[in-house]
Structures are given as structure tokens and as C-alpha cells.
Amino acid sequence: MASCATGTEAAIRAAACRDGDAASHLKLISVFVIFLTSVFGISGPVLLAKYFHGKPLYDKAILIIKCFAAGVILSTSLVHVLPEAFASLADCHVSSLHPWRDFPFAGLVTMIGAITALLVDLTASEHMGHGGGGGGGMEYMPVDKAVGGLEMKEGKFGGDLEIQENSEDEIVKMKQRLVSQVLEIGIIFHSVIIGVTMGMSQNQCTIRPLIAALSFHQIFEGLGLGGCIAQAGFKAGTVVYMCLMFAVTTPLGIVLGMVIFSLTGYDDQNPNALIMEGLLGSLSSGILIYMALVDLIALDFFHNKMLTSAGESGSRLKKLCFVALVLGSASMSLLALWA
Question: Which domain of life does this protein belong to (predicted)?
């Protein structure tokens, strides 16, 4: 964020960079470039999952991709979104105003985002437990009782266990779908903020490097979300819809930011724009932090059968997943140097 009090040299340099026509031209280019890189990023894991489906290493490959995704999402929330939200509300254009100077609203809204994500998680888990196919508290009726007290014959007990196992697998799939959908909501908030901020900016010196940085940003974020979508087992139509929503959100945000500037004259240094950016960013960050730590990292490393199983195979897979987690978080964190 620009300082409220700048020196003469900085002011001259800033004035030279503010070129509305050149900025608009760059923003139109960025709409198409960011859309294409977003499609590439999110479709990669989905297409790989479809190609390798049914192959011996399919489940392990998807799990490693998901751990990489968890690292990307965690880094997105802590290294990109949260610092930007704090910076927006700490900007001198905002922090000089009441009540923004009196209370750390960024931290408060981040906490609200995390608690909201927990509430959604609890509500969905309760729904899965009591309706629509059963859940964690579901009781499985023995086959002999189901047929009116007849004596259980050989093979029925095995069939009953198979029904129970299939029900548990379905619950896991429902949980993975919920995680993917809530993740997409958090990422969409973040993408809209990025797009609108860039669309309102008239500084061509800022926009030019942002195009390249945001392209890589969208690729890694797309890999993260795509890995979760691939494991959730959505129908083809839902997969296409979720991928398209991710791909168009940032470009549409850029267009929206350009429209807001043309109608109101607000640029990315306007106090109202900074407050909205800070609040939405904090909410998004809280959602993403909760989803990354609770529904991705903790769920897989402590409750996934492939990672908790004893033996050399489980130990090796756990190490690979941890390396994928570190690589995902490190690669996304590195992008903070540019965007």
C-alpha cells in the first residue's frame, strides 16, 4: 500500500506510473491470461485422476496430490490472504478513521471465518449422521432381524459387513465433497478480492508484474483445489461447474473492478475499497486456515487408513505425503515475493 505521505521523487514516480489507458490495456490482457492459467491449474489434477482411475497407484497418487493441495491452501491463507487483509485495514487511509484505529478487526473477522467453517462442518456432519444414508451414529440392523427373525445363514454376515463398509465409504465421499465446496467458497472470496483490487488500480507499473505473478498464483491455487475436487468423486457436470467457477472468478473480479472505477472513481487506495478488501480477505483467510488444518491435514495424516496403517508401506507413504505438503506450502509461499 502506498504511504499517505510520500517524498517528491516517489510522488513523481507514482504519477508517471498512473496511466489509465495503459492500465486498462494491461488489465484486458490479464483477463485472458489469468483465465487460461486458472483452467490449466485446476484441470490438471482432475484430468490426471480421470486417467489413472482404477490403476494400482490411483489412491496413493490422489492422496499425495491432496497433501500438496493442503500445503498450497495453508500457505495461501497465512502468507497471502491474511497479511494482505491486515495491511488493508492498517493502511493510513483507513487506520486514521474510527473505529478501524481502535480495534484489530482483521484478526476478529479471521476468527469469525474459522468458527463459521466449523459450524458448517458440524451442521453437515450432523445431517450425514441422521439422514440421507446414515452416518457416524448409524446402527446397522443384523440381517436375521431384517428378515423377520429368521436364522442367519452362511454368507449373510459378510454381506452385512459389506453394506456397512459401503455406507462408511459413502460418508467419506460426502465429507470430501463438503470440504471441496467450502474450500471453493473461501478461494472465490480471495479471487474476487484479487481481481477487484487489480481492476481498480490505475498503476501500470504495479499491474505489469502482477499479471505474471497472479498467473503462477492461479496455477498453484488451481492445483490445490483441483486435487480436492478429484478425490471427492463429483459427477462430471459438477466438476466442470466447479472448475469453471474457479477459472472465471478472478477475471470477472478484474472486470468488476474496472466497472467500479469507471462509475465511482474509486481506486485501490480508496478507504471504502480498502475496508471491504480487508474484511473479505480476513473472512476468506479464516475459512481457508480451518479447512487446511482440520479438514485436509489433520483428517489425512491422523485418520486416513493408508497413512495410519502400520508397516513400511504406510510409513513410506506418510513421508511422501509430508514432503508433498512441504513442497505445496513452500511453492505458494515463494510466490509471495511477487504477488
Answer: Eukaryota
Measured between alpha carbons, how far is 30 from 262 in angstroms, rounded to an integer?
18
CB 198 within 8 A of CB 257: yes
Strand partners, 18: 203
Output the pTM of the full model.
0.68
- Cα 72 to Cα 218: distance, rounded to the nearest angstrom: 11
- Please name the residue that has the C-alpha cell 459413502: 170
Total Cβ atoms within 10 A of residue 221: 28
The percentage of residues in the chain with a pLDDT greater than 70, rounded to a whole number, is 77
How far does Cα 312 stand from its chain's mean position?
A: 32
- 31-44 tens-digit pLDDT: 999 999 999 988 88
> Where residue 247 falls among pLDDT bands split at 50, 70, 90?
very high
Amino acid, single-letter form, for residue 141: M
Q: Kindly provide the residue ranges of all beta strands, DSSP E only, lying in the chain, ordered along the sequence.
A: none
> Between 93 and 149, whose confidence is greater?
93
Copy the grid coordinates of residue 64. Answer: 499425495
Residue 246: partners with Cβ closer than 8 Å, 6 or more residues away: 38, 42, 184, 187, 188, 191, 221, 222, 225
Spell out the SS3 assignment of 134-181: CCCCCCCCCHHHHCCCCCCCCCHHHHHHHHHHHHHHHHHHHHHHHHHH
Non-local CB neighbours of 333 within 8 Å, separated by 6+ positions: 75, 79
SS3 call for 7: coil
Residue 5 pLDDT > 70: no
* 90-118 tens-digit pLDDT: 888 888 888 888 888 999 999 998 998 88
**Amino acid identity of 224?**
G
Helices (H), 233-270: 236-264
Contacts of 159 (CB under 8 A, 6+ apart): 143
Asked if residues 60 and 306 have their Cβ atoms less than 8 Å apart, the reply is: yes
Backbone phi and psi for residue 4, each to the nearest 5 degrees, phi listed first:
-70, -30
| Cα–Cα distance measured from residue 261 to residue 198, given in angstroms and rounded to the nearest whole number | 11
- Which among 257, 284, 327 is positioned nearest to 83, based on CA atoms? 284
Asked if 89 contacts 106 with a C-beta cutoff of 8 angstroms, the reply is yes
At residue 127, the pLDDT reads 63
